[in-house]
Design goal:
elongated, mainly alpha, 138 residues, 4 helices, 36% helix, single chain, DUF7970, three-stranded antiparallel sheet
Amino acid sequence: MSEDPFGDLDAAMGGGESASESEPEPEPASEDVETDGAVESEDGSESASAEPVDPRERPAFEFDETVHKALYVLEAVADEFDDIITYDVERELTRDHGLKGVTKSELHNAALAVATEHPEAIVERVLEQRGLDDESSE
């Protein structure tokens, strides 16, 4: 059975979105869509841009490229995650690296990408949560 047993939980709970998940992402400033140094106008034609777009000025990807996935975590962990993302990570990106327009979707994507690069850390944490810190597989 490949069906997610919790797939309809959000609907049953009235949406279940937190304030940070329901924040709208900023829309592009102009009606032209910039793509890798070229500008695509509403009619779909591309023209060479006079200046390449500075990657510090806009998110790595557009909000419409994302999907909403529910994550079930303890409230304390979710609160700590939100605090670290907002007060540590986002602040460092804006203050120390000069990024503008950092979005929650960009931060969440990066956090999950880091987790997927370190599955051993996830295994260790699950064992730790169950009180099986040093148990090796038999």
